[in-house]
Each structure stands twice: as structure tokens, then as C-alpha cells.
Amino acid sequence: MHHAEYIHRCLALAENGRGRTGINPLVGSVLVRDGTVIAEGWHAGFGDDHAERDLIKKFDQDIRPTDVLYVNLEPCCHHGKTPPCTELILERGVRRVVFGMFDPNPLVAGQGIQRLRDAGVEVIGPVERARCEWLNRGFISLMQQRRPWVTLKRAQMHDGRIAQEDGSPLKITSPEQDTWSHAWLRGKHDAILVGIETIIRDDPQLNVRLKNKKVEQFIPLRIVLDPKCRVPMDAQIIGEGTCIVTAQDSEVPSELEERGVQVLRIPFDGKQFDFCALWKALTTPKDDFFGITSVLVEGGPRTWERFRQAGDIDEDVILVGRAS
Ligand code: AOF
Ligand code: ZN
Questions:
Q1: Number of domains, the chain
Q2: Is 74 a catalytic residue?
Q3: What does the pLDDT look like over 287-296, one tens digit per residue?
Q4: Which one of 27, 106, 229, 287 is least enclosed by Cβ atoms within 10 Å?
């Protein structure tokens, strides 16, 4: 196998951390001896061991100088919530490392690689950089733009319609399109965001369903922009894992928090939330909230418009429905 294929394995292992790593990156690691993977590890959650440490802890045999450690992100060399991976790598006698991308965290940013090279380790990379950066686009966005990666998703008919003439909902997408967007959009973002109008009109579940079965292992945070706190108490999204973003002076019924809903008060100028303040709150870990690095904006039209005006869009996905 070539380097790329082992990096692909790292990317697959990294997915185990999806929805649990908060503002940290998704990272996987493999140890290869004579062309065979002999150990695997991943970063399982915010504050937990990094992928390399997880792998090395699970592997209790000696590491040989010819063994190769693969990891999709440059090993860290700083003290964060966990100690630096570079030091453990050196202590355990790893002499060859292949990495997928540089760590955009300014505390690392190439210094991890430098530390290993200075200690005489053979380091190869970045290998499969584009794929690695795509997996961690949220983490990169956070490091470089101080906000999550934002994907806008819209569904519209061929002729541009998004609702019936009388404003009532129109089924636009096919079951195939729904399966695709649950797997590749909802299942690949830390949060799904909608405006309050969408909750009042459609009462959506905002979970991840594949072939009509709810996926349990990873549920993105549900965020509702609701300046006046009009969310109906019988809406399907009421409960844990939902965050209502409301204006600082709005009246919030105590029942919301009693039922496990997280309430975020953000400055609102009568038209628009202060996005900077919103991103800061959503990317700052607090208690058992570890923060998010990506958001899927699902609508409706007013919410899309707000994001367009703010210019905070990284990816635009339009699902076009066919007239039946
Ligand atoms: C790695 N392997 O698996 C991860 C890395 O607070 P800490 O100690 O968890 O450090 C978080 C930072 O460490 C994060 O911002 C990123 O720079 C790096 N994450 N590094 O070598 C890993 N998750
Ligand atoms: Zn590390």
C-alpha cells in the first residue's frame, strides 16, 4: 500500500470522533509494520487523548525503528488539555512519521514537524492534504476565521418555487435526495441551524435519518434563531440537544431550560443577530458544551438572506426538485 491509503484509514478512524470532539479536529492514526496495520487510534472526544496517544497507549509492544506512524494531522507539540504528542512519539521510539496536513493551530503550525525532524525522525508529508483539509474544514475555519464552516442548503423546484401558492409547504426533494442530504450534509456538520419561521411552519425534527431510520450515534446540535422567543412548547425540537438563540431582552419561558433546551442570549439589532457574538458563544466550550466547528443552515428564505448579507457562507448546496 502507498502512503495515501494509510492516510485514508486515518481519516476513516477520525470519523469515530464526529460530534464528540467539539472545537477540536477529527484525527485518526495507524501504525504500520512491513505493510500491515498493527495498531489504530483516534481522538474520541474533547479533552480525551489525541489519536497518536490513544494508539500508543493501546499498543503495548515495542515500536521498531522501521515502523511507520501515520496521522492525518501534524502531531501537536504544545501543552493543551493533554500533553504534546511529539514527546510521546519520541519517547516510544517512533522513527518514521507520515502526516496528512499541517495543524492550523498557531500553537503548533509546523513546529510539531520541526520538533520531530530536529530529533532525527524521518517525517513525510503532507500526504493527501486536500482530503485531510476537507475533513477538518470546520477546525481550519475556526483557526483562520474565528467562526465555524457554514454550509447553506436550499431546496427548490425547477422553476424556483419553494412553497405552494398559498404558502403551505411543498415537498420538493425525492427520497434519494433526502438520503443524500442526511448522510452528507446533516451527518457531516456539528449543527443544523434554522429560523423560527421554519419551526412554526414545518415543525421539523432536524435529526439524521438514513432510509427513514434515525441515526443514533451522532446527532448534530439543533440551533434555532428566535429573536422574540416564539418557539412553541409542543415543537418536535424541544428537548436536549437544541439551542434557542434569542435577543437579550426577550422573555424566555422557564419551561424551555427545564426541558433541557440551551438558551443563548445574543445582541439583536431588530433585524440581525450579532454574528460575531453568536459564533463566539458557539465556539467557546462551557461546562458540558464543547463547541462546534461547522453549521448547516437549512432555512428558510429569511435566514438564508441574513447569512448572505453577513457574507458568512463557505458552501452553497441547492437541491433541485423535479415536478411530479
Ligand atoms: C494531535 N492529535 O488527535 C488532535 C490534535 O487541548 P488539547 O490538548 O486536546 O489540544 C487541542 C489541540 O491539539 C487542537 O487545537 C489541535 O491543535 C491539536 N489536536 N493534535 O496531534 C490529535 N486532536
Ligand atoms: Zn497531540
A1: 2
A2: no
A3: 989 999 999 9
A4: 287
